[in-house]
Specification:
By secondary structure, the chain is an alpha/beta fold. It has 17 helices and 13 strands. The strands form 3 sheets. Strands 1, 2, 3, 4, 11, 12 and 13 form a 7-stranded mixed sheet that branches. A 4-stranded mixed sheet has the order 6-9-5-10. Strands 7-8 form a two-stranded antiparallel ribbon.
Amino acid sequence: MSKQLRKPEGARRFGAIAAVLAVAAATATGCSSGGSGQQQDESQPLEVWIRQDAGSPAAESAEALTKAFTKETGLEAKLVAVGVTDFETKLQQRTAQKDLPDIVINDTGQLGNLVTQGLVREVDREAVAGSADLAGRAWEAAQGYDGKYYGVPFNSQAFALLIRKDWREKVGADVPKSWDELTDLAVKFTKEDPDGNGRNDTAGMVVPGTTTRGYLTWWFSTMLWSEGGDFVKKQGDGYTAAIGEPASVRAVEKLQAMFCDSKVVQPGATTADTATTHTVFESGKGGIYLTGPYMLPRFDGSLGKDKYEVVAAPPGADGSAALAEGENVYLMAGSANEKGQQEFAEFAASPAGQKIGLGVGNGGIIVRLPVNTTVDGAAERSDPRWDVFQKVYDDSGRNAAALPNWSTVRQISSEGLNGVVSECSRDVAQAMGELAGEIDAELEKQEAKG
């Protein structure tokens, strides 16, 4: 079972969180088919959940991974591909039924939420076979607020710019070297008819600006960090809001200007999720898209790989930074086969597991950038564009803050940002001051306020 959080050396008390975990752990006892204090059965089959749509190429890769694990270890593993949109809902249903799956492969951003509910077991990093070969940044994304590890890294990614190369050449512009140059290029894409159809129907910047799942915060993080701002910062033994500080305010003012002054974002950006923005870019209605490497196969097929280029996001006032995230293998509480759980996680992170996850044979990418440093993803794929993403991850990648529940802070900040881009008359400094107060209040609730 997931253990109650203990106070890390030098850290503040986690009274409220510990209380939540104690209740959640009691609720989770008996989840799946066994658990801490219950008899273990090392032959017990494993139920493995992944956040992918059933029948998709990615689900096929996950099925290949589980079958390879069974062949390697002799232990049966059953894959359940749970739809992207209702994954959390179904997991909560299984939590209420005290019947958790044994393994969940899910976003690094969900770690705090899973830990706070007591749904995952602690992982001994040193006891994981091959742990030294896994990237340090990936391990950092498996680390909770208390400094302990609650997952084994499986997949990582960083974000880079996809730019319509043919449009850039049409308007006579160079690859942008700063965020201001990037905005200038977006203006040209918006106003200079880069597709040559004689109509005013192109947008320079493609932005998922909806508050759903905190998408605007997700997209804006790279720009904010490179400008020297942040959502939160370390203070004492915890965190405090940083979104109201001068560097953050300046970055948000630039964001607001994209929507309100230069008007380079696509129509409807404030309510657009990524399903919408993917279509905007591939349909030739937008020219610059900050996104992850997982979109390359789709855009190669729909747009043509000769039409766009992959470029690292330019440095800002504080240098280069890019959002890094990925997925962990979570060992769920209550399993009757804890040894099998760890063996699955080790196999998934091994060179063999990582290569299956690359999806080279079927296009089902569940490993975007390998977490195992002995695997060269770009070489395996024979595509140097993946090296751009790998270099961004290695040199400039940055994980979100390891809060008890980052997803809540992400949602709050997304709503605050959406307010200043939806209402152009809003004073950014005042709005970000108000947002800082909301974030600080949430940090207090999480017992994470420094």
